Amino acid sequence: MPIFAAALLVCGNTSCVHTASVPSGVLSNQILTFENTMEHTYPLRFENNLVTTIWGGSHLKPLKGMKADGELIGESWEVSDVAGHVSVVRNGILAGHTLDEVIHRWGPALLGQSIYKKYRGKCPLLVKLIDAAHDLSIQVHPDDALAAKRHGTLGKTEMWYVLSAEPGSTLLTGFREALSADDYSRRVADGTIVDAMARQSVQPGDVFFIPAGRVHAICGGIVVCEIQQSSDITYRLWDYGRMGFDGRPRELHVELARDAIDFGVYADYRTRYEPAKGATTLVDCPCFVASLLQVENSLERRLSVHDSCVTLTCIEGVVRIVASGDKVTELPTGASCLIPAVDADYRIEGRARLLEAWAR
Q1: Is 231 helix (H, G, I), strand (E, B) or coil?
Q2: Which of 34, 55, 334, 336 has the fewest CB atoms nearer than 10 Å to its CB?
Q3: pTM (two decimals)
Q4: Each residue of 219-240: b (16+ CB within 10 Å) or e?
C-alpha cells in the first residue's frame, strides 16, 4: 500500500483546511509504461471548471464562448491536478474521467518518464484564466522547500500573461523599497504594506514572472492567463478589510507569509520579450518553460525531447492540434488542452495565438 501524507492547503480564494493525498514515492503498482495501457493517448480537453470569487468579473464565460449571466467568475481552472479542482476530461474515450484517473491509467506516457518520477505521479503544471474585476489580496506563495516542510506539497512559482486590461489598470509585484521582516510586520499592522510595493502599468501582452516568495496582487480590470506549479498554497497578508461571501473578514496569514517572503528589491519586475512568428520563450525557470505561439497557418512543435506533458491554451483564434499523425483536437479561443509526453511532437493548424508550457 502506498503511504500518503496529509497536506494543509491555505487556499487563495477562501481560507480552508483540507487534506490531499500526496504520494511519498513513485507508486510501484501504477502503470509505468505506455505499452501497458489499454488504448492510445491523445490530447486531452477538459470540462469547464469555473470558480466564483468575491473579486471576480464577467469576462471568462464570454471568452470561453458561454453566455455571461452576472455570476462573478474569478477563475477558470483550465488544467488542474489539484485536490478540489481536478480537471475532468471532455473529449475522446476517457470523457468523464478525472485527470488523476488518466494519470493512473497512462502513467509516464502522459506525464513523461522523468516528470512522472520527479513529481511522484502528479501533474506538475496548473493553468488558470483569472478575471479580476476588483483587486485581489496582497499575497505570497512559499517555495518548494517551505511548502514541502509545512504542507507536503510543491511550492508555487507562476507567471501571468495579460489577456486584457482596462485603461489605467495596474498590478502589484515585488517591493519598491527595502523592508526588513520587522518593517513588514509594522506595515501590515498599519495598513501601509501596499505603499511599499512596486506598482506596474498593464496592457494586453504584458508578462510578469512571479517566483515563489515575491509578494504580488492582480488589481481590478485585468484578465490574465496564469501558468504555475501545481499548488494552491497561498498566504494572504493584506485584504483591504474586505468581507468574504460569509460576511466575515477573510483570514490573513501574516506570520506564515513572513518566512516565505523575498524582501529583495529588483530593478525590473516586468518580463521583456519581442514577440515573433512561431514560438517566443516567455519564461524559462527551474519549474517550467512557457512560450507564446503565433501561428499563421501551421506550426510544428518538437517537444518530445523534454520528456514532459505540454499544456496549450488558445488565447485568440481557433486551431487544430494534430498529434502523432491522426490524433486531432480542435482548440477554440479560451480553451486549453494537455498533450501527453508521447505526443509532444505535434502540429498546430490554423491562425491563432496560444500559450504553451512544459515542465522541468
Answers
A1: coil
A2: 34
A3: 0.89
A4: bebbbbbbbbbbbbbbbbbbbe
Distance of CA 83 to the CA centre of its chain: 14
Q: In the Cβ-directed half-sphere of 112, how many Cα atoms lie within 13 Å? A: 24
Q: Which residues contact 7 (CB under 8 A, 6 or more apart)?
A: 19, 20, 22, 83, 151, 152, 153
Cβ atoms of residues 64 and 48 within 8 Å? yes
- C-alpha cell recorded at residue 313: 491554451
| Per-residue pLDDT reduced to its tens digit, 60-118 | 999 999 998 989 999 999 999 999 999 999 999 999 999 999 999 999 999 999 999 99
Dist. CA 358–CA 360, nearest whole Å: 7
Q: Tell me if 318 sits within 8 A of 352, measured CB to CB.
A: yes
pLDDT tens digits, residue range 293-327? 999 999 999 999 999 999 999 999 999 999 987 88
- Cα→Cα distances 324→31, 37, 67, 169, Å: 21, 17, 35, 43
Number of H helices, E strands in the chain: 7, 21
Give the residue from 99, 116, 144, 122 showing the smallest Cα distance to 287. 144
Beta-strand pair 207-210/125-132: unpaired
Partners of 79 in the beta sheet?
127
Exposed/middle/buried for residue 122 (C-beta within 10 Å: 0-12, 13-18, 19+): buried
Q: What residues contact 6, with CB distance under 8 A and at least 6 apart? A: 19, 20, 22, 152
CA dihedral in degrees (138, 159, 59, 245; nearest 10)?
A: -30
Contact status, residue 268 vs residue 174, Cβ threshold 8 Å: no
Q: Side chain identity at 294, as an amino acid letter?
A: Q
Residue 183, SS3 per DSSP = helix
CA–CA separation, 136 and 132 (whole Å): 7
